[in-house]
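User: For a benchmark we're assembling, each entry needs the component sequences followed by a predicted structure for the full assembly. Here are entry 17's components. Please fill in the structure.
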Amino acid sequence: MSNQSPTNNLLEAMSTMRAMRRLKTDPVPDEMVVKILQAGQWAPSAINSQNWRFMVVKDFNTKVTIQAYYKRLFDDVITPHYATNDPPPGSNAAKYERQRAAVEYLTDHFHESPVWIVACLIDGENPDRVSGASIYGAVQNMCLMARALGLGTTLTTRHTGYGKEVDALLGLPSSAHSYAILPIGWPMGNFGPVHRGPLKDVVYGDRWGETYSGLN
Ligand SMILES: Cc1cc2nc3c(=O)[nH]c(=O)nc-3n(C[C@H](O)[C@H](O)[C@H](O)COP(=O)(O)O)c2cc1C
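Assistant: Structure for entry 17:
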């Protein structure tokens, strides 16, 4: 089985759902986009408010204009980050460089992904600390459905560095904000496995810093 394969196995989908940043420009059928959107709509939200709005963006000019902001943030924020930070847990210098190169690739080709889903939330003028909890579950569901269908995507939030400009460009009212852009397409590379640090490094027991006995 090629690891570009679709899967109905949830454990396989979760453990192989890498950020797929190298995407083909071939179109993605609307039936598949609708399945991804439906997965988003199945997500929970506070008081079941479902205040999300999912924008399906295909217009090339819109994508190009937003890509320019995305690229500016790559140059101003992401490049210095990679230059001054060590690889994260579960990674190493070689993997970190491959990740940086893929991030740069997606930056340069962001607008060429055949379809974007922009996840927006009607969250009022002053979103608070839990606002995102009512949209990122939907975003993760959509990423998982894309993986299940054999489509690649990456949860991206970098555009929020120019959130006001991007939201205005997309015509959002002031009561709504965009929280993520999912560029979706057929992957060039293979899915998973994901690289993470050991579970014991991030799990505590009854008090912060205490060992959880279940991990012994
Ligand atoms: C909140 C959040 C924001 C992210 N924003 C971006 C982004 O703007 N651009 C990007 O290329 N990847 C972005 N990512 C993807 C992460 O960099 C990626 O999931 C992480 O490096 C782990 O890589 P893997 O999923 O391939 O294992 C984001 C992920 C999260 C959870």
